[in-house]
Amino acid sequence: MILSKIRAGLRPIRRALQLNPDRFLKKVHGVIHVGANHGQERELYEIHNLNVLWIEPIPEVFDQLKTNIANHPKQRALQALITDVDDKDYDFHIANNGGASSSLLDLKLHKDLWPGVEYTATTTLKSCTLTTLLKREQIDINAYNALIMDTQGSELMILKGALSLLDHFEYIQVEVPDFESYESCCQQPEMSTFMTEHGYREWSRSKFASRAEGGSYFDIIYKKRR
Fold this sequence. Notes:
Layout: H1 2-19, E1 30-34, H2 42-47, E2 51-56, H3 59-68, E3 75-79, E4 81-82, E5 89-95, H4 110-113, E6 119-128, H5 130-136, E7 146-149, H6 155-160, E8 171-177, H7 188-197, E9 200-210, E10 216-224
Parallel strand pairs: 1-2, 1-7, 2-3, 4-6, 7-8
Antiparallel strand pairs: 5-6, 8-10, 9-10
């Protein structure tokens, strides 16, 4: 009887641990994080002793990122705009929330969730694919078996430009809406179809924002089928 009560008391704790979206970090040895911003997750990655490659396109934000990770020897940052093509010029829009909502796409229904966010500047950036960047910088892909993307609507473009790399990633994490947050952005059904077609299954999904009119934002983690 006492043992049964103990087990019953542990169930909510176990469920909470299972729902922790970061638990996959215990299963990997390195992360490529595209859309780094200021490297807010640097301490989390440090706790898990991960190799980390940060990629951030905005020059001023990149400078702050480098400062922020200076005391993390296993973490490195590269400045690049990652898409599905090389050497294309994009008008990249910079948002007023420290660059966090910046995107190469125009804002659309994003304002329903975060009405205070707006673009305050636009700069021209030249793109490259993740495949090209890693080759150019002589990055050993074997040091990283997880890909995390937070690029405000362009995540599917990044994946399409990295098809030859996908087999290296055990886990891929994306932030994705199921509505048109940014104009012509990738949405959850499209993302899930792509991931299924390329050998991944949904491993975890966490909703973190919802519109009153319908539609939500999710952090979704996909796991490679082996």
